[in-house]
Amino acid sequence: MDEPKGNRKQGRRRGSRRGNAAPTIADVAREARCSPMTVSRVINGEGNVREETRQQVLEAVRKLNYSPNRAARSLAGGEQLRIALLFDNPSASYLSEFLMGALGEASRRDMHLMVQDCDSVPEGKKLIRKLTDEGITGFILPSPLSDDRSVLDLIAECGAIPIAVGPGQAAEPYGAVLIDEFQAAYDMTRHIIGLGHRRIGFIIGNPEQVASGRRLEGYRAAMEEADCPVLDGLIAQGQFTYRSGMVAAEKLLSASPRPTAIFASNDDMAAATVAVAHRRHLDVPSDITVCGFDDTELASSIWPELTTIRQPIRDMTAHAVAMIAKLCRQARMGEKLSPEHAVLDYKLIRRASDAGPSLVEISSDSKKSA
User: Fold this and answer.
1) Could you report the per-residue pLDDT of 76-107, keeping only the tens digit for each?
2) Partners of 290 in the beta sheet?
């Protein structure tokens, strides 16, 4: 039997709110045709809202049976800000820098910081709903969570503020702190080429992270500009972990001819490449140059110390905390939120792991080109 038209319409309306999921502050805002911040001010009894708008919001609340979470109340109230850092990043050295920056800035601003790990985007979304209900007003997200638009949208729908840290590309209308991943990888590749290398291997990072693709693009652009052929045997897939770096380095160093230099997408994989080279009785950098990315503590604690790109990880997370504080302040004042995209400077740090190719390698390349 056909379903009545009225029921089909109601079904579609419910579907627009994720099936049977509880309505969010964003759902109320859409129903009342106003901003989530206006809804928050009405819920918290503030006076700087037109009476007509207030009645529209209250009607939407009743209609949707909306129960405001603590995050919505906190944004409009005067209590201590509570923020969360969600991470799904396998690099311990990167995460250490990330945490130190966030903890330091949160402490300086008297903000409560909660740190939660999650293994997947679905798990992250469950945590977001739980934490906003408990009063978390802002989220700091490193990659790969920062690259997932649906995660950012959910945080906003729950009445909180998302800040993406280190995404390959910033997403409107959300705040982000990042570096120019393409240009940084381009600059490192050009540096290696400038040393005299032409067979330069590259280890890609986690394919789910946009930054991995941007770094690969920067490497390719520099190689093509210098007329250095990018063969399939010069590129290996990694995951930003030490172990994946070992597997990728074994593949690259088993090639014939092998590369004279390897540029890994992070320091963990670069350190693994150095270890594999030593196991094969190759001297770094006399026999092979190895360069990394991030300049974590690991880069200067192995031998030889790594030439790498210094990504200001601590500064990036500290900046993200400051962004959340600013946006929460705007929300409490009833102002329009103005998220920004902050692009911080990186720096190429040269240490002891790079050198020009050996005379044997130069001679071999010359014979092939003759």
Assistant:
1) 555 678 999 998 877 778 888 999 999 999 98
2) 262
**Residue 342 · residue 324 · CB < 8 Å:** no
CA atoms within 13 A on the CB side of 346: 24
Looking at residue 79, its pLDDT comes to 62
Domains and CATH numbers, the chain: 5-68 (1.10.260.40), 80-179+313-339 (3.40.50.2300), 181-310+349-369 (3.40.50.2300)
Instruction: Record the tokens describing residue 204, joined without a space.
Output: 């890609």
Please return the burial class of 1, using the count of CB atoms within 10 Å of its CB with bins 0-12, 13-18 and 19+: exposed
Looking at the predicted structure, is the pLDDT value of residue 212 above 90? yes
Q: Is the pTM of this model over 0.90?
A: no
Choice among 75-79, 92-96, 162-166, 266-270 with the minimum mean pLDDT:
75-79
Angle between helices 149-157 and 25-32 (to 10 degrees): 70
- What is the token pair recorded at 349? 């740090």
